[in-house]
Amino acid sequence: MKEIELYIHTAEHREPKLLKIDEDATVEDLLKRIAPEANGDIHLTIEGEEEPHDRHRKLRECGIKHRDHIGCHRCRKVAVAVFYNGEQNRSFAPSATIEKILHWALRTFGLTGADALDKVLRLPEAPNEVLPESAHIGSFVKPHTCEVRLNLTGKVEVNG
Amino acid sequence: MSPDEALFHAHLEDAPFQAGVDFAKWALHGEVATIVWPHPVLWVQADEDLVAVGKVFLRFTADGYPQAAPTACPWDMEKNCRLDPALWPKGPGNVTKVFNPGWNNGVALYAPCDRMAMPGHESWEPQFPNVWWRPSSTIVVYLDFVHSCLNRRKYAVA
């Protein structure tokens, strides 16, 4: 038995939690520890991957390693709308990082060089708060939805 | 061990700090047992066009943590003193504003999470709600702000 630590990202918290688990545990074992009451409505997706893993597979068989970042979320995909000079849409795994979405948004809106340097993503309802780039998009999904709307804006510099 | 030091140690074990260590974004200099409280030294990774050696060492003063905000200044590890102003990071955006040795005699960073900079800058609280130091903040707030200042090139996608 080899125990590994995993960074677990969920809809409930913007910051991950560290979880110790046997690498021979199944996806189902892990999900039951994260959300015992979920009854199969939670999916596990590795950060950087697009599709959830089958529940019967062992973590090791899924390629999950010590200190990997894992998203555990009821949404299989999150519909992301980004607003800048217009609107762009794309679906991401809930385990997609804000950094990944920022890069996609910069490319999609054709922002490069100095125009891209100072851009950040924010929620419309919290217009002063910069979303942390290491967070998962699934952590910003509201209950009963699988969508997130984001504003691509300039970074504010410290002055005053 | 005092409560402030114990909480600081606990936050070094938590996932947000450890995730940054795993990504080589920051780390404690030395071992936890070698911290000379209240002055832990940590480093933050930086773009090499901003800092030639690729990282900045920060010597914190963190008494009262986390009720009181910490303060930090760039540190010369070899000479065990404040970093020569000529060697402070320089660059566009926030870099030269945050790393400003001409401000307050160069004893601290000009940052919304630094206890020396916060007084008189209350307008920063609504401007930087996730950087403004609160008793619920952890050292990761400070490190993440510095890391975001010192890592800009990755956004300039081709």
Short description, anyone?
The complex is a heterodimer of chains A (160) and B (158). Chain A has 160 residues and is an alpha/beta fold.
Provide a descriptive summary of the structure in words.
The complex is a heterodimer of chains A (160) and B (158). In chain A, 15% of the residues lie in helices and 30% in strands. Chain A has three helices and eight strands, in the order ββαββββααββ. The longest helix of chain A is centred in the middle third of the chain and has 11 residues, at 98-108. The model of chain A has no long low-confidence stretch (mean pLDDT 95). In chain B, 24% of the residues lie in helices and 15% in strands. Chain B starts with a helix and ends in a 9-residue tail after the last helix. Chain B is globular and about 40 Å long. In chain B, a hairpin with a 4-residue loop joins β4 (71-76) and β5. A five-stranded antiparallel beta sheet of chain B has the order 1-2-3-4-5. Chain B has five helices and five strands, in the order ααβββββααα. The mean pLDDT of chain B is 94. Chain A binds chain B through residues 7, 15-18, 67, 69, 102-103, 106-107, 112-114, 116-119, 126, 128-130, 132-134, 155-160, and chain B through 14-16, 18-19, 22-23, 92-94, 97-98, 110-112, 121, 123-124, 126-130, 144, 148, 152, 155-158.
How are the SSEs placed, and which strands pair?
The complex is a heterodimer of chains A (160) and B (158).
Chain A lengths: L2 E7 L7 E6 L4 H8 L8 E4 L22 E5 L4 E7 L1 E7 L5 H11 L4 H5 L1 E4 L24 E8 L6
Parallel strand pairs in A: 1-4, 5-8
Antiparallel strand pairs in A: 1-2, 3-4, 5-6, 7-8
Chain B lengths: L2 H11 L1 H8 L3 E3 L12 E5 L9 E7 L9 E6 L4 E2 L12 H4 L25 H4 L11 H11 L9
Antiparallel strand pairs in B: 1-2, 2-3, 3-4, 4-5
